């Protein structure tokens, strides 16, 4: 008879942690869902990450129809929301108002978590699909403000949340696609970026993404090999991220968040590696 390997001993602690003092990650859902759905979809990741981070789930500011992929399971979880437009039927909004609404939604969730007892540093972003696009765009916007401050010899101005001293160290991009959104058109002028109020579907990509639109802050990219948007995920990784700053985990799945331990363990391990390299202590569960 073939030998059967014994089950691997779990490194996940048996008691739930007090997350209030832990470093915090802001979690941005995809288009056509909401924060509650994203948290439920991420349950296999949460099972590990909750011992190292306080995860804060934020609702996008704009209402929309549910994403077709979630109707069968989450149809009772309305209202459904979006950060950005992806089809013409969604109400038009100018870039300035869109940026302001996104910043307000984020700031509200962060201040509510402060009132709920969270005290840890805000260290990272985790987004799925449209939330991943936004997470990467937020890193780029931060880079732009920091670059301007260096040139001018001043302190870095507050970003779209208006919260002083906020400095994202990394982003976890689950099925994140290009192009990135321009969240600071006063500074960022690159044609490789789509306006915050514009529709990104059908975007005409530049032959080359210049340095201004290139991410150099650490990112983890999680790609499903059966995802219909995989070619756009690869453009984000290969053209919008500086070589040597991005990690990639590929798994045999479609446009969703991994649930099986064989996939989850690889994603979680990569998150731990990235966090530690940015100076964040973690409790390794894999």
Automatic annotation (TrEMBL):
This is Serine hydrolase domain-containing protein. It comes from the Eukaryota. The keyword Lipoprotein does not apply. Belongs to the LovG family. Coiled coil: none annotated. SUPFAM superfamilies: alpha/beta-Hydrolases. The keyword Hydrolase applies. GO terms for cellular component: cytoplasm; nucleus. Residues 23-261 form the Serine hydrolase domain. One of its GO terms (molecular function) is hydrolase activity. GO terms for biological process: secondary metabolite biosynthetic process. Keywords: Hydrolase. It holds the Pfam family FSH1. InterPro entries: AB_hydrolase_fold, FSH-like_dom, LovG.
């Amino acid at each position: 008879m073939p030998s059967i390997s014994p089950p691997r001993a779990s490194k996940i602690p048996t008691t739930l942690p007090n997350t209030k003092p832990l470093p915090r990650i802001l979690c941005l859902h995809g288009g056509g869902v909401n924060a509650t759905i994203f948290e439920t979809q991420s349950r296999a990741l949460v099972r590990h990450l909750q011992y190292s981070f306080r995860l804060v789930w934020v609702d996008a500011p704009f209402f929309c129809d549910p994403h077709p992929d979630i109707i069968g399971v989450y149809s009772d979880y309305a209202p459904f929301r979006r950060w950005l437009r992806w089809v013409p039927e969604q109400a038009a909004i100018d870039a300035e108002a869109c940026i302001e609404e996104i910043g307000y939604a984020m700031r509200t969730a962060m201040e509510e978590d402060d009132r709920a007892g969270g005290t840890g540093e805000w260290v990272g972003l985790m987004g799925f699909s449209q939330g991943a696009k936004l997470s990467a765009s937020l890193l780029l916007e931060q880079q732009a403000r920091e670059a301007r401050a260096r040139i001018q010899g001043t302190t870095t101005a507050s970003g779209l949340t208006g919260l002083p001293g906020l400095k994202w160290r990394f982003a976890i991009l689950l099925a994140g696609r290009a192009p990135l959104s321009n969240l600071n058109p006063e500074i960022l002028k690159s044609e490789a970026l789509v306006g915050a109020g514009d529709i990104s579907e059908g975007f005409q990509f530049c032959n080359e993404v210049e340095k201004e639109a290139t991410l150099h802050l650490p990112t983890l990219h999680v790609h499903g090999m059966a995802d219909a948007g995989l070619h756009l995920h690869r453009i984000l990784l290969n053209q919008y991220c500086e070589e040597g700053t991005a990690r990639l985990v590929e798994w045999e799945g479609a446009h969703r968040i991994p649930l099986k331990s064989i996939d989850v363990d690889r994603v979680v391990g990569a998150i731990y590696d990235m966090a530690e390299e940015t100076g964040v202590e973690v409790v390794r569960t894999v």
